[in-house]
Amino acid sequence: MGPGPPAAAAAPSPRPLSLVARLSYAVGHFLNDLCASMWFTYLLLYLHSVRAYSSRGAGLLLLLGQVADGLCTPLVGYEADRAASCCARYGPRKAWHLVGTVCVLLSFPFIFSPCLGCGAATPEWAALLYYGPFIVIFQFGWASTQISHLSLIPELVTNEHEKVELTALRYAFTVVANITVYGAAWLLLHLQGSSRAEPTQDISISDQLGGQDVPVFRNLSLLVVGVGAVFSLLFHLGTRERRRPHVEEPGEHTPLLAPATAQPLLLWKHWLREPAFYQVGMLYMATRLIVNLSQTYMAMYLTYSLHLPKKFIATIPLVMYLSGFFSSFLMKPINKCIGRNNSGAFVYGSMSFSDKVANGLAVMAIQSLHPCPSELCCRACVSFYHWAMVAVTGGVGVAAALCLCSLLLWPIRLRRWDRDAQP
Fold first, then answer.
1. 222, burial (CB in 10 Å: exposed 0-12, middle 13-18, buried 19+)
2. What global pTM score does this model have?
3. What's the mean pLDDT when you consider all of the chain?
């Protein structure tokens, strides 16, 4: 009996990414990280304390941005998957990243700059309409850059270790971005205070935020987009998007039946029937609310409740961020003890959407309760920001603890979808 057919040669494994390629990918989200840090920390402070817009108007613009981000994220992800066959030479995900980067660069400086053409007699609603389109364009660009950058990881590497390494490098530059924003803010505030301080001027007045600080936030936004543009250019020059492997059509050697061990995972509509989906969703949303609300209102609390000099709106957030970063190193051993469970693009997309919309609605609700709607600050706003930091974040913390207790009482047990059980 003659020898059988020759065995098919195994496909060669792709070469690992070089250090330059890994670093070039890691800096691709640096512009987004810079803008996000400035958006959450200084947007309300700039609109209310520097530009003297009403608390409700400032909250409405932040809500608009969060809703636009929440809506754009799944839409961009869907369109990016549909356009996978387009821009084959440059790469569809890099093309979406480039579109998002251009949108962010062209829109973000206008958000932290005075309204062009507006004067003292311009009504507030007209100024808010002016900022609205720039915020929507910025959030669309931010979502495009984020989705395309994340989806590049499985395109660049296939090894699980390399995926983890790229994610870690990406997070490392997120840390650098936040430190850069707070450090630059402190430097600009320090230089602005030094240049304007006079021997006969009261130091307490020069340390207060006001219309004189418009150049500080404008220059900070220009610095953010300038540095971010350089790193985005390095990303596009050093990252090469690999083509997807060609999926073979079924042929005569293709098995007619899938292996018996393969079990279909839950579809998106089946997630809605799982109690664990709502348990984890509420816990994630609550924890994100604590982080984002404390970051958003910390500068207002330092300025109006504690009456600290304006340089502290940079130093205190920096200390908070660094302490959170160092405490994140404890998550690895804790994660080994308690394990990790959850998966699916629908789950991540739903969590992200609820997180962004909930943050916007929470900020709008707090701003609507502001006791000084017609003036910058009154005596009542001193205790208002104090209770906003204590009661709101504390109440959300209690809700997060209750969600965590529900996970301990009713642990996550996900069912597999049984095709035969479906009607």
1. middle
2. 0.79
3. 78
